[in-house]
Fold this sequence. Notes:
Layout: H1 7-36, E1 52-57, E2 63-70, E3 73-78, H2 89-95, E4 99-104, H3 123-136, E5 142-147, H4 149-160, E6 165-171, H5 188-201, H6 203-214, H7 219-225, H8 235-238, H9 250-262, E7 276-281, H10 289-298, E8 303-307, H11 314-317, H12 319-332
Helix pairs in contact: 1-6, 2-12, 3-4, 5-6, 5-9
Amino acid sequence: MQKVPTSxxxxxxxxxxxxxxCCVVRVSVVHELACSGHAQLTEQDVKFPGLVEDFxxxxxxxxxxxxxxxxxxxxxxxxxxxxxWMAWHxxxxxxxxxxxxxxxxxxxxxxxxxxxxxxxxxxxxxxADALRVMEAHGLKRVAVFGWSMGVQVxxxxxxxxxxxxxxxxxxxxxxxxxWEAIRGVPFARSLVPPMIRxxxxxxxxxxxxxRRVLTMPEAVHWVKRLGLASRTxxxxxxxxxxxxxxNLDMRTYMTLLGLLGxxxxxxxxxxxxxxxxxxxxxxxxxxxxxAAEHMVQRIPGAEFLVVPGGTxxxxxxxxxxxxxxxxxFFRERGYAS
Length: 337
């Protein structure tokens, strides 16, 4: 006799369906939101005065694309996975007259080469790249902004060289094992890794699925319903999502995503002895508030901002609030120009 699902099982099944769509859509929504914010915006549309773009060789010879803009105290930007440095557009616009921002494209993404060793994409490698980028630009000590995956990179950077980090601003992220934090899908940690391995083995399938989902008429509805972005997202912005996917190497992306899920810096949170500000979105489905609270409880003296209505992209959804809170944090913690 066929077993009839209980209401709890049905609820979990519905959440899993939502989660699958999340995984497909998330691959591209980060970049477009980062480059779009509240309007249709591309990197070609925005050129900051004094922007310097160059290349740096990592320790293993991988060529990394770097971006530098602004003047004043140095801030290193650790980006989210799938999002370019332009994810920080509103922060650059607000702070560039007082702070010098430096960022780089993660190895294998955007302007950076993939490493000769296709598995050299661990968070530790990205942290080592950050140090190499700092050295190439003559920076001995910086404040670090981390967004999503960048939170893990920022923490690993502090672990590797605590004397090089003056302060941490951790936005929409977790210290590690991100699949365990996803809200509403308790079995994600068991299901996501094999899904990623499958997508890595057949990258063309992942690319095709993503493009098909994004061209569905109801795709915008799902992005908002799943909490990937606030309901204020302009439908016209979503219509240009697929275009940002043209040069993304899905095999590299999936390898990086898989290694990201294996990383965990939770063990060193109590060792963070510098000023730290944690920012979370109240409606973030990927890195929910409780995960951010865990970091705040473990990092001595950490400050905490929860953005009501904010999702995984609070820095582009509510830039004024986020910028003013960071400004207050810097001023009170002695990192003001």
